[in-house]
Write a structure and sequence with these properties.
It is built from three helices and four strands, in the order αααββββ. By secondary structure, it is of the alpha+beta class. It has a single domain, classed as Glycoprotein, Type 4 Pilin. It is elongated, with a radius of gyration of 24 Å. It starts with 9 loop residues before the first helix and ends in a 24-residue tail after the last strand.
Length: 173
C-alpha cells in the first residue's frame, strides 16, 4: 500500500518562513520611509493656511507680519497660536518675523519675508525636533515660497520633491 503524504514537511515550512523573512527585510525600510514622508507631508499641508494668511497679509498691507502690534506673529497673521496647530506628527507651526526685509522688491531682487517653521515629533525623527522651514519671498506683484529642512535633523528624502531647497534666495527665471 502506498502511504500518501498529507500537509507540508518541516523543511518546506522553514523555506517559506525564510522567504517571508527576506521579503520583509526589504519591505520594512521602504515602509518606514513612506510613513515618514506621509507625516512630513501632513505638516506641509497644515502649514498651507499659515502660508495663505501671511501672503494675504502682505498683499493687503504691503509689508510682512512682524508681530510688533501683538508681540505674537501668528496672531497678527490671523492664525492660531503655534501650539494649537497640531497634527498626528506635527507639534506646532510657527510664523517667524526674523530676517524680514520690509522693502519693495525690484525686478532684479527678491525681498525675504516671513518664515514658517513646522516642528515634528518622534514619528518623523528620533530627535523629536526635526523642523521643516518655509520662507516667503516678495517679488514684484507676487509672493513666492521656498521650502526645505531647517537643519540636518530632517532628511531631505522625507520632504516632498518640491520642498527640497536650501531656502536661499530663489533663482530669477
Amino acid at each position: 500500500m502506498k502511504n500518501l503524504q498529507k500537509g507540508f514537511t518541516l523543511i518546506e515550512l522553514m523555506i517559506v518562513v525564510a522567504i517571508i523573512g527576506i521579503l520583509a527585510m526589504f519591505a520594512l525600510p521602504a515602509y518606514q520611509d513612506y510613513t515618514k514622508r506621509t507625516h512630513v507631508a501632513e505638516g506641509i499641508q497644515l502649514a498651507a493656511s499659515a502660508k495663505q494668511a501671511v501672503t494675504e497679509y502682505y498683499a493687503s498691507n504691503g509689508k510682512w507680519v512682524t508681530g510688533a502690534n501683538t508681540n505674537n506673529v501668528n496672531a497678527e497673521a490671523g492664525i492660531n497660536a503655534p501650539s494649537q496647530i497640531k497634527g498626528n506628527a506635527v507639534t506646532s507651526i510657527t510664523v517667524l518675523a526674523d530676517g524680514v526685509v520690509n522693502e519693495n522688491p525690484t525686478a532684479t531682487s527678491y525681498k525675504k519675508g516671513n518664515t514658517i517653521d513646522i516642528l515634528y515629533n518622534e514619528k518623523v525623527s528620533a530627535d523629536k525636533d526635526a523642523t521643516a522651514r518655509m520662507v516667503a519671498w516678495a517679488t514684484p506683484g507676487s509672493v513666492m515660497w521656498t521650502c526645505g529642512p531647517k537643519d540636518a535633523k530632517l532628511e531631505k528624502k522625507h520632504l516632498p520633491s518640491n520642498c527640497r531647497t536650501d531656502n536661499s534666495v530663489p533663482a530669477k527665471s
